[in-house]
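Action item from last week, closing it out:
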Amino acid sequence: STAYMAHTNAVRAYRELANPKDAPFVATCAFGLSAILYGTVMLAGYLTFGSIAKGLVLANFHPNDIWAFLTKVATLISIISSHPLLFTSLRDSFLSLSGLRDKTISSFSTFATVSISLLALTIALSALVPDAGFIVAINGASVGAMLIFLPCLIY
């Protein structure tokens, strides 16, 4: 679920590359390998459960299955580990859009205040929304709508 989340930090990573000419090759290999891995896992899930497979493949397993439980723990660790990547992008974008980027370079207190406020907001939202599927559905619907209309507007 977190393989394609690093793109939000692509600009920062590109700026930090020793040899930026390698970026297209590295990105192509990384996305290609992750697409192959995702496709393999999806195929295995479908071949295991067929057309009755649930959207979250781990929900198909028996609740007492130890391997499914360990996989859920690994998924939890993956989600927790991806939070710093996403939060860094959120903070950088907020600072750019609000015009505070220059102030945070010279003032650690502004940087800390923005960071703590955004972190508190994300934690509060995650505590208030009981089903992440709702957020994913809203995101999918919004992006889906943009994919339909944006090319038309560009054309």
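Closing note: Residues 12 and 39 are 28 Å apart (CA to CA).
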